[in-house]
Amino acid sequence: MVAHPDWSALRAAETARMLAACTRCGRCAEVCPMLPYAEGAQGAPAPALVEGVLEVLAGGEGSAAARGWIAACTRSGACNAACPEAVNPRLMLRLAKWRANETGALPKRDAAEAMSRVKAFARLGFSATEQEEWL
Amino acid sequence: MSDALFWYGCNMTRHAEIIRLGQRMLAAVGVGASPIGGPGACCGSPKESTPRIAEGMANRTMERFGAWASGVRSAQGGAAEGGEHRSRESAADRGVRSAQGGAAEGGEHRSRESAAAPQAPPRVITWCPSCHMNLDDFMGRTKEKGFDHRHLCEALWEGREALAPLLRHPVRARFLVDRHIGFHAEVPVNDIIPALLALIPGAEHLDHPYRGGSYMCFGLANVPGALADHQRALLAALRETGADTLVTIFHSCHRELVGLEKNHGIRVVNWVHLLAEAMGWAYQDDYKAWRNAEDPLAAIGPERVAAAGEVAVKKLVLPELARPRPV
Ligand code: SF4
Which residue from A65, A114, B82, B144 has the fewest beta carbons nearer than 10 Å? Predict the structure, then answer.
């Protein structure tokens, strides 16, 4: 038996769990190595940043500082080690980014050419047999 | 049908020689693994700005792997229970009981367990940390897995008794490893890889406390300023330790760091390259040669350009090879 029938159900369950479990203590933001790169987040109090992330996760706009933090998240997971509530803030920010991409709160990353590039490199580097067997 | 898949991901198509070497190393430690990756075996990461599309891609991959795994189990006579049990062993448990002192306990434990089981479960051996984490976080939580998964470095570490005697050729390298904070909680790469490389005669690991953000350089490359800062920190750590070689762990780190070789008086190699050198295996790092060439198109060569399609190479490959160096 799998835990969730699909990604939407998984996201809904995780979102509900995170919104309930997070105490907004801000430790995840305090230890984040990417905060210095987050546009508009410098000087923002850590609990307020987290509150903004949770707003985005729930489908809202969130603050500009929170959106800047979400955009700068690179999944270091330093937050997971710091979180006293086992919220999994790394996943929290990732799901918040997905939600923001869907609501338009954050622009989507342009990955239009990513797979064409992957295939072009495969044609350059793989033999004909490797292309047949490995792709 | 091989008992394992070597799931190299998608962006590894830039580094065909690492796929070949990885497969050959797995064979050398007794794991027959077929490479698989590219758009037809995608974890969905490249399309995650649109989760619905990412999910569709990931589901197709899980169906493909599921069909392969049930084929393996049928060939084994339906004997491969236990994979799920082992795959749920926590990262902390199998962590780095690991690479430093007692390193091997996870592997020993599993091999004793395997001995008790009638057959080893079908195994997917990962390379890409994005794929590995997507399998943990999404794919394996929404689709029946039916196979076990391990990272390549874990599989080689488990097979180190077979690997070590093959590392006969001294490699003169005082190396620093490009380590990141992320993914280490899932697979203790930051300990296992230096431990594997420490088996190479002549090679000296120079430890340094610096860890980059993200879990590989790809993430940093998308955040203004972050990759340049990371590269500056690595160069400072190289100077501080007196290292002459920078070892990359993942493909995106290799892609972003090989360019440092051109102007900074260091050598940049992937950990798999270094193991191959110690085994006396020849390889060619095309991506590095192309990235550092004055004329990448000429370095690729007209025949290969023609075979890959000149329009595609000029549109998709050259801009990447000629992109500015952050430092
Ligand atoms: S995710 Fe954890 S560390 Fe971050 S604010 Fe919530 S409880 Fe605190």
Answer: B144
